[in-house]
Write a structure and sequence with these properties.
Elements (H helix, E strand, L loop, with lengths): L6 H17 L5 H30 L7 H7 L1 H9 L7 H18 L3 E8 L2 E7 L5
Antiparallel strand pairs: 1-2
Length: 132
């Protein structure tokens, strides 16, 4: 079923086009070049991630959802995180990250545990081995 785009989408796109036209008029060629390079780099980054997402959708394993495939890919997941679209909640991602470093921390005689996540603040308890 087709869906309507957000009415402000076209306005935002026109605004972006207007900004890009202004960039081409910058008097300083270095500022103009750097700004154009930033925009091109962002387009390349997003284009590569979108192509990867399309590839995943055409090659899904049985019973695998596209979002599972996206979340399991470091490059695509980074784009999802950028836009707060990652399907795995923050606490689960934090615990997985701490689990990944657990063997190294334990070999060093220390631990790192998730203590609290509140209002965008993460508190991790870290213990270090005592040095005698």
């Amino acid at each position: 079923m087709p869906t309507e785009l957000d009415p402000s989408f076209h306005q935002r796109m026109q605004r972006v086009e207007s900004f890009l036209a202004e960039v081409s008029e910058f008097a300083d060629p270095n500022t103009r070049a750097v700004t154009q390079e930033i925009v091109q780099s962002l387009m390349d980054l997003h284009g590569a991630r979108l192509a990867r997402m399309i590839e995943f959708c055409t090659n899904l394993a049985p019973n695998q959802s596209p979002m599972q495939a996206f979340a399991n890919d470091e490059l695509v997941a980074s784009l999802l995180l950028l836009y707060e679209l990652h399907p795995t909640d923050l606490v689960t991602r934090l615990r997985a990250a701490l689990d990944a470093i657990r063997p190294e921390r334990e070999r060093a005689g220390g631990i790192a545990e998730l203590d609290e996540v509140q209002d965008g603040t993460v508190r991790v308890l870290i213990s270090h081995p005592r040095i005698s």
